[in-house]
Amino acid sequence: MRGDIPLRRSLRSRLLMLSALVSLCSIAATAWLVVSLTAVAIGRERGRALNDDARIYDTLVGFAATHPDWSGVGPTIRALSARTGRRITLTDVDRRLLADSAKGSPRTARSLPSTASATVDAFAVDPALAPRRNGTLSDRIDPRAVGPFRLTGQERARLETEASRVARCFRGPGQILSVEVVQKPNGRPEIELGGHPLDTGDRCEVDRLLTRTATESRALAQLGRLVNDCLAARHAPTVQLTDDLTWISATARGTPDPRAAETCLATARREQLDPYVAPPALLFATAPDRKISTFFDLSGANRMRIAGITVSVLLITLTVTYVAGTRMVRPLRALTGAAKRMADGDQSARVEVTGDDEFGRLATAFNLMASRRQELEQLRRALVSDVAHELRTPLSNVRGWLEAVEDGVVPADESVISSLLEEAVLLQHIIDDLRDLSAADAGALTIHPEEIDAAAMLTQVARAHQGNAGSTGVELRVRAPEGARLHADPVRLRQAIGNLVSNAIRHTPAGGTVTLSAHRQGDEVVFGVEDTGSGIDAEDLPKVFDRFWRAEKSRSRSGGGSGLGLSIVRKLAEAHGGSAHASSTLGRGSLFALRLPARGPDDTSRPPA
After folding, report:
1. Alpha-carbon radius of gyration of the chain
2. Fewer CB within 10 A of the end CB, N or C, for the chain?
3. More confident residue, 527 or 481
4. At CA 115, angle to CA 114 and CA 121, rounded to 5?
């Protein structure tokens, strides 16, 4: 029997690998799902945080652009804190507290973070946080900082009336573009057609709406003076400002440097708006400690994602299990089919061995079992045939003699009775041999070992067969040293050696010799019966201990014997824990040997296992 199956081919390893594969798929899918949902949650939280930061910053910049100082910013900060969940603290550039959304004791400079979230300055707007509005951020001034350009209430009311009139005019029949009235930071209403400002045209008397007010004219003139004073200090030509706060050359002497003009315009705007805009402030917006709860949000997208992963893992598991189960069940089905065919009488049923795992070993064992069963069935049939053949001859002889006596052909004299007795003894011998073999096969062949002398045993056997050997002209010799002792059943041992001697005498021609020997070899005593007979062919040598096997191919009984003697010898040797062997050279003789342990079992009445 070969050793254990290699680990990589073992069914146990395959099942472990299958379980590991399914577990790995589940773990990988779960990890991917967790990472995916967590990434989505973090992205949402980050986006919400950015939106909150932008909202806070833009609101406070708008407050600074429309108020000359930070007094009164407290309600705005508290409203933003309630809306965003952030704690908002506002300080000046020297970190002196201006406002704090938290109740209780205000923050001190030490309790504030080392770095501010942003600097709130209407003159230096952060383009990344401030949304785009009507106006420009090229100078980084918030468009809501209008200062002296803010219209009075009377001007705003008049322009709103004009804007409503123009809008009604443009909303007339056949108008395709949408018309909306929007308000600019300084309070001036503006008409938008299809999303674009209406800045010129003579239809619907639009010029009345676009005409500059007195407030705007004064503010624009003031800004122009500031710009030209700056350019004069730089020895640059003067410029003229338009309504949309862009500049053009004011004289034909030359065009000023665009960079100098833009710089002076930005400086002038800051100087003009400074009294109307709150000073810069530091913004500290901190979020409270909270866990990301979006992962547990069973939204529609998350439910679909979880359902998709679950279905994918289930399909992978079912597919892998089905494929592995099919591969595992296939050899079992083949074994089941072969077993059914064998049960139906097909002795040639075999299964294909496809691997060296447990199923492969099982298939090999099944094929060996089927082969052995087929051999046993053939032996059983041969045994029935041989027993019938062996019993037929003596029974036919007995029947023939009895019928002859009954018919008066042969008188019932002493010779007839002697022949009938001889046949009856032969029948009894065959029956006794069969009984011994049956007991050996059933494990019921009992032995009663005792300490015996090997040389004395061989002498007794030789003396018992001396008469038979002398009548056939065969010489018996005994060659055994003194002191070779062993534990064995003397009766069974004499029976076994006697069978070997009888067989040797039967196959040794007149003038030949049969030698009985015994010697100690390690922990065993080896008995040998060697003859100078005809020998056994090498092909037939493995069959000499089979039941009813004879060297004579014609199965003739002319030489005597039942064909069971050598089978009984092997069974008796095995009953003693030993073995029987044969070697032969064709034409020169044979040697039969019994190897028995020197020390027998302690229990003298227990049958051998």
Report:
1. 61
2. N
3. 527
4. 135
